[in-house]
Amino acid sequence: MPYFNQLYAEKYTGMLKLARIYDLMSVNSVKAKVELVSLAYSLTSSGFRTIPLLTKIKAVTGLILSEIEIPSLNCYTSNEKAFNLLWILGFMLGDGNIYVRIRDTKAGLDFLPLFRINQTNTVVNLALYTKLFYFISSLPGKLSPIIKKQGDNLELHVFGKANVTSLMNMLAPVTSFIGKGGNFLC
Asked: What's the pLDDT tens digit per position in 34-50?
């Protein structure tokens, strides 16, 4: 599928899981029901749930708790397809922020541009950020991204006028996809 081959991290594994759920919908077995419920529960982050997974599986299958074997869902891999600038632009527009910090110094005001993308701190997102870090670092312009852990979130930063200007100028050729193309910094 044209768009879905550019999904990464939890969105990519979510699409694989949804495809598997669709396949299992036509299978009428206890094992399929256990896998369906487990997959459905794994589509969202593991926060508070009104009904625990085992209780839900018991209600759907009629099994007693000691008979329930939760399937391993570690078989859902990440997308190994390389990033491209359109994907970076979409990720930035969808999940990122670009802003300017203004600091008062003895010499006057100092303007520090910052590009930041926040995601929940998960193993999958850390792997995505690491891959994104190396991709951005490899671009012309010698960019220096930073990955920070902020509480339950991961942040990828590109900080400073030279870094942010280089990043924006590299994305300029693909800005025609969002309407008015050209220099981001105008």
From this structure: 899 888 888 876 666 78
Per residue in 144-176, is it b (16+ CB within 10 Å) or e — as a string? ebeeeeeeeebbbbbbeeebbbbbbebbbebbe
Query: In which band, very low, low, confident or very high, does the pLDDT at 159 lie, cut at 50, 70 and 90?
Result: confident
For residue 100, which phi and psi values (nearest 5 degrees)? Answer: -120, 125
Same domain (yes/no): 42, 91? no
Give the chain's domain count.
2
Residue 77 lies in a domain: no
Distance, CA of 164 to CA of 158 (rounded, Å): 6
In a domain, 73, yes or no: no
Q: Is residue 72 part of a domain?
A: no
157 lies in the same domain as 90: yes
Strand bridging mode 108-120 / 146-150: unpaired
Going by C-alpha positions, the residue among 78, 87, 162, 142 that lies closest to residue 117 is: 87
Q: Which residues of 30-46 are buried (b: 16+ CB within 10 A; e: fewer)?
A: eeebbbbbbbebbeeee
Tens digits of per-residue pLDDT, 136-157? 888 777 788 889 998 888 998 8
Q: Domain check: are 90 and 59 in the same one?
A: no
Print the domain residue range for 172. 85-178
- 133 in a domain, yes or no? yes
Q: How many residues does the chain have?
A: 186
